[in-house]
Fold these 2 entries.
Entry 1:
Amino acid sequence: MEKIPIIKMVNISKNFGAVKALQDVNFEVYPCEVVALVGDNGAGKSTLMKILAGVYPPSRGEIFIEGEKVNFTSPADAISRGIQMIYQDLAVADNIDVAGNIFLGRELEKKALGGFTKIIDKKRMEELAWEALERVKINIGSVREKVENLSGGQRQAVAIARAISAKAKIIIMDEPAAALGVKETHELLELIKDLKEKKIAVVYISHRLENIFEVSDRVIVLKGGKRIADRQTKDTTMEKIRQLIVEGV
Ligand SMILES: Nc1ncnc2c1ncn2[C@@H]1O[C@H](COP(=O)(O)OP(=O)(O)OP(=O)(O)O)[C@@H](O)[C@H]1O
Ligand SMILES: [Mg+2]
């Protein structure tokens, strides 16, 4: 029996006015897979993943989650189906503490005043935030720390902890290593390997081929809004992928 992909995008096209950002793109992700999405600036990578994450509707095409057709009208729709996207710029909210970030948009409440009202359950959120951080094996002094005081790697880890604790089936990372140092990038790659073991699939968008070859199972290349290649990482080389990105063949 053929394995059912967790994500299947079929013939996706997206126009922004006269710009054809995507043309008839197919994209699938199988359970526990780490898929690298590569291509030059403007190739359509972020647009394709924003469509999957419910940020934009496609102009044409269909999306299936575990075989079931979906029509996302907002990121909340995608999140409720286990799709989490970590955006490079707005990975986390700076002026909120770590626990608050992990529960952003799904704050826990508890009854107060003998059941007459509800208040935010800060204590429970902090306990669960610690658990989530332990799972991503990142050292942060306190879950009450404001995120603006964290390093790039720690911020990325908070975003991943949030995705895991929201029960993500698939985590999309758009250029996660762009703002990270060497050690932090190494930690991020270890985290991705760990997600795979937790049976969470990952889509990793990056221009850094050495990182891609370290963590991915498959590489998909976009060029000018079209999918031009789909390779098992073990069956290809960095040189070949670089050539596909630049020359298209
Ligand atoms: N909101 C938007 N409005 C208009 N055009 C857009 C919008 N978003 C993307 N585009 C255009 O769509 C095309 C694909 O952009 P996209 O951001 O998906 O590329 P990318 O592969 O993520 O590039 P990069 O590697 O630079 O992040 C580009 O021509 C871009 O200018
Ligand atoms: Mg992009």
Note: The domain at 1-82+168-249 is CATH 3.40.50.300 (Rossmann fold).
Entry 2:
Amino acid sequence: MRAGVLHATGDLRIEEKPVPEPGPGEVLIRVGVCGVCGSDATEYGRGLVLAQPPVTLGHEFAGVVEAIGEGVSGLRVGATVVCGAGVSCGDCKPCREGRTNLCRSYTTIGFHHDGGLAGYVTAPANIVLDVSDSGLPIDTLGLTQPMAIAVHAVRRSGLRAGQDAVIVGVGGIGAFITFAAAATGARVLVVDRNEERLDLGLRLGAASGLLAGSTPLRERLAELGMDVDVFFEVSGSAPGLESVLEAAEPGATIVPVGIQRGEPALPLGRWTLREYTIVGTVAHVFADDFPEAVRLLGTRPSWSDIASEVIPLDLVAEQALQPLLGGASHQIKTLVDPWISEPRPAVHAG
Ligand SMILES: [Zn+2]
Ligand SMILES: [Zn+2]
């Protein structure tokens, strides 16, 4: 089979590799499609943080069960599946409490173990969900992992119907958070520097948009009569966070989803007196967030505005990783089909 193997920073090679065998408790998946995201681009372009090379990248994949390892029950050969990619031990305190994303020995398929940018991948059966009955095309199912990240962030925030929410940054994660937040029945305002992304935010269910840098967020909220319960800061930018802190009324919940790389001066005293709730969020809890992510994907007729084109392995570096690094990605999500040699349109309607 062919695989996209990361050897070092900036060194991704498309190689011929043997098809792996599923070990005890594992399944072998024939990959239908695998998404590429900012985390892959960061590992590829900015230096290895998680990845243990040489490793096949790819942690956002969907496919069909090809073989089953010893002791696996509940999955059958031929089932269409999605994979959570996060591997947890099941024994440590957070695992016992159902917070598997905080496992003390958490590893990820696609960084620590060979991933889904390949013809086949093995995965522990307990993070593989049979979605044969979903009726969704494989390209749509390839969006499950980023949607699960969004479902997790929204669940962590406590956002519910009738509340007001702001999402700053409608990119690879912000787009999915917009959809998941609007799906709760909350009224959503999206903020972005890019008009097209604002339009996309509206199509994903936001009630209104704000072009970053035009009107201050605080003023726009007053204009709209919004008293915001939850702010999702997804851009990870200092101005994004500043606009949120300036606009947040006492009692607001702030979810810094985007990772702030700088060290902002935090006015902790003011936060105390305003009773802000600051909520961290990382990855997803497979058992809780994956089924909901698949359900949400099934509630929208087409995701072509999120992922319109599927590319072959040979184009991963040039058309997925490098554009993501430069912030010039024209698609919200780039999907890869390891079995094609030319790009093809994504198929989303069933
Ligand atoms: Zn990802
Ligand atoms: Zn654990």
Note: The two ends are 28 Å apart (CA to CA).
